């Protein structure tokens, strides 16, 4: 009798393996063959759950995004009035955060040419700004000011993170945090 496999769990396993491959060699490293090797299965298993590489990449983008959202929500839960310090935890100050940013950077280039990835990326950007905006409004900030503060935090986060991915020796965790606080209006 065949073993029952949870489709969602298998897709998550493939996405996690694809994320590892992206870290090691970029988007081109994600092939059904490489995924099968990484997971110790046949390419048929991968193709049972995914039609093509683009579908794997989209699932991997979502997987990476959901991990970052969980990190963001955990950080925001601890600071009800000012999420700037909480959002610092999304900067590439540690290995997990750096991993997220490297994967995103790979996807951002692909999103310029792949409509599905572009839409997913846009949803993520809007979602982050909206989550911050909602947080500020709940803390009593007026709507226009909340919009601007959310935008400022996002600009600072993305800009500093991109520089750090390419120049980690200069952008120490301390330097990232200090620059982020200044740019986002936290200190």
Describe the fold and architecture.
The protein is an all-alpha fold and 187 residues long. The protein has a single domain, classed as Tetracycline Repressor, domain 2, CATH 1.10.357.10. The mean pLDDT is 88.
What form results from the Cα inertia axes? elongated
The CATH homologous superfamily corresponds to: Tetracycline Repressor, domain 2
Q: What gap, in angstroms, lies between the N and C termini? A: 62 Å
What is the alpha-carbon Rg in Å? Answer: 18 Å
Strand percentage: under 5%
Number of individual domains: 1
Order of helices and strands: HHHHHHHHH
Spans of at least 5 consecutive residues whose pLDDT stays below 50 are none
Just give the CATH class.
Mainly Alpha
Number of E-type strands: 0
CATH topology category name? Tetracycline Repressor, domain 2
Provide the helix percentage. over 70%
Mean pLDDT: 88
């Amino acid at each position: 009798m065949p073993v029952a496999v949870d489709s969602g769990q298998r897709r998550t396993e493939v996405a996690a393996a694809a994320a590892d491959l992206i870290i090691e060699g970029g988007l081109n490293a994600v092939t059904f063959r490489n995924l099968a090797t990484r997971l110790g299965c046949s390419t048929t298993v991968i193709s049972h759950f995914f039609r093509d590489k683009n579908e794997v990449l989209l699932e991997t983008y979502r997987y990476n995004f959901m991990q970052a959202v969980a990190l963001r929500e955990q950080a925001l839960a601890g600071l009800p009035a000012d999420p700037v310090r909480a959002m610092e935890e999304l900067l590439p100050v540690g290995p997990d955060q750096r991993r997220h940013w490297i994967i995103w950077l790979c996807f951002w280039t692909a999103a310029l040419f792949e409509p599905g990835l572009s839409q997913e990326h846009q949803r993520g950007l809007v979602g982050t700004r909206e989550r911050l905006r909602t947080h500020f409004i709940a803390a009593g900030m007026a709507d226009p000011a909340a919009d601007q503060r959310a935008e400022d935090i996002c600009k600072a986060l993305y800009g500093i993170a991109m520089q750090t991915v390419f120049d980690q020796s200069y952008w120490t965790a301390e330097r990232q945090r200090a620059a982020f606080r200044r740019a986002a209006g936290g200190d």
